[in-house]
Design brief:
The protein contains 4 helices and 20 strands. The protein is mainly β. The chain folds into 3 domains: about 1-85, Thrombin, subunit H (Beta Barrel), CATH 2.40.10.10; about 90-180, Trypsin-like serine proteases (Thrombin, subunit H); about 185-275, PDZ domain (Pdz3 Domain, Roll). The strands form 4 sheets. It has a 6-stranded antiparallel beta barrel. A hairpin with a 4-residue loop joins β14 and β15. The longest helix is centred in the N-terminal third of the chain and has 14 residues, at about 1-15. It is globular, with a radius of gyration of 20 Å.
Length: about 280
């Protein structure tokens, strides 16, 4: 009975996993997300064009890139097809070390390959950009990138992304959900190019460039400023600045920053804008 149940879970996962081809070659995997032909995958999979996906039944469909963020290593594709299966998202915040996880993908082009393992940890990793990861010991290989990592119930709790130190790293489903929320609501932007800087007990963002006519320019921010907080929030990860921008109440953002060698912080209120081209 247990074997039958596990077989049903893995078969459902295989039916929502696609193989992604970019520039004519197999590049990785993706997950059917929602009932309207959306596919989530890793941004690094999309090197080359045209892009197409192969479904579990062998059908191949042209795919358009709806949104891509290389820093988060996430992308949303769209295919024109009806009646597609859809993944069931899970809550990565409820994962615990030792929990069984299942990875599905197309390692070395072999469609629908399944591997299992257990969760090692959920959270930031030393030596990596300060952002959350689901870390497990599932076996991944080239072609697994962008495929689903699921719990024992078949709920997708991560997007497989890379191998580090013999362990598999996946982007948590909570981060994927936030990425989709921004797609639906429109992308707000401040107009700065920044570099995350690890501070003693938090994260800061060094401003490298200011876009002309942007909310940041109107708010008198300058290259070299170090953004250390926003709307009474201290940054703890590399994603926090953009998350704060997107969730700004009425589009207003109170930014705390340091300038030059001064240890004193300043505060400025800016009105973030909606921009079709992604910028922080």
């Amino acid at each position: 009975m247990l074997g039958d149940a596990f077989g049903e879970v893995t078969e459902r996962l295989r039916r929502v996993t696609v193989q992604v081809f970019a520039g004519g070659a197999s590049r990785g995997s993706g997950v059917l997300w929602g009932a309207n032909g959306q596919v989530v995958t890793n941004a690094h999979v999309l090197h080359g064009s045209p892009i197409r996906v192969e479904l579990w039944d062998g059908r191949q469909l042209a795919a358009d890139v709806r949104k891509k963020d290389r820093r988060r290593d996430l992308a949303i594709l769209r295919v024109d097809a009806d009646g597609l299966s859809s993944a069931v998202p899970g809550d990565s915040g409820r994962l615990r070390p030792g929990e069984l996880v299942i990875a599905v993908g197309a390692p070395f082009g072999f469609t629908g390959a399944v591997s299992t393992g257990v969760v090692h940890s959920v959270g930031a990793l030393v030596g990596f950009e300060a952002r959350p990861w689901v870390v497990s010991d599932v076996r991944l290989a080239p072609g697994n990138s962008g495929g689903p990592l699921a719990n024992a119930r078949g709920e997708v709790i991560g997007i497989n992304t890379m191998i580090a130190g013999g362990l598999a790293l996946a982007i948590p489903s909570q981060s994927v959900a936030q990425f989709f929320d921004r797609e639906a609501s429109g992308q707000r932007y401040l107009g700065v190019t920044v570099r995350p800087i690890r501070l003693e007990r938090s994260m800061g963002f060094l401003v490298l460039e200011i876009a002309a006519g942007s909310p940041a320019e109107r708010g008198s921010l300058l290259p070299g400023d170090l953004i250390i907080g926003a709307t009474h929030r201290t940054f703890m990860s590399a994603d926090d600045l953009e998350d704060t921008i997107q969730s700004a109440s009425n589009g207003q953002l109170k930014i705390e920053f340091r300038r030059g060698t001064s240890s004193q912080s300043r505060t400025v209120v800016v009105q973030v804008a909606v921009e079709a081209v992604r910028a922080a």
